[in-house]
Amino acid sequence: MTEPDEAQTAPTASPAAADAPLLNRAAWRRILPFLAYVFFIFAGDMLERMGHTPASLLWLYPVKITVVIVLLALFWRDYNELGRPAPRRTVALAAAAGAVVLVLWISLDAPWMIVGAAAGYDPRLGGAIDWPLALVRLAGAALVVPVMEELFWRSFLMRWIESAEFQSVDPSRLGIKSFVVTAVLFGFEHNLWLAGIVAGAVYGWLYHRCRTLWAPIVAHAVTNGLLGVWVVATGNWSYW
To answer: Which domain holds residue 34?
Structure first.
């Protein structure tokens, strides 16, 4: 990870750029799916505080994922960084990195590495797994969340820290500041904060090295997919 030469890379300010909004249309189209996802997390928390049981709120996840899918579909044409598939070597590297993150994720669980308590997503009803709910949860985590989160954390935020005109920032030119800030914020999005920081660092490194958003998306998908299989197999629902 290198810091770019400011003398060579600093854009020349123009009157039009000075009047430009802090967040343009491209930014909002990467932010809104993420905000919708976060909204449902807070809504679920508030409903629990009002007396609803976690079991009675299992329906929220399918609704949440559906809303995110609709938003991603509406904005898909604006996600230029997803237009080209990643080379096979990149996919292989990303998949291997995602598997390593999974091992670290379920290992970095000492008390000091955890903030708060996560109830997780327990798809059991009447003592038996409700497989439609479990499969929706697994598919959402492995196929939808990686796209939504990487568009926000890596494609938008990581580049926006470098420049408000974030679409002009090549991933290979990302600096230490954007790498560290994004990894730390991504980490504290999760109650396993240290595992989250490690995951954010790995996904950020993949984006910087491979210069394609598909690299962190594939790694994130592998991590979440394997984690979901492990959760269902072991019953460690708090990891969901």
So the answer is: 14-239
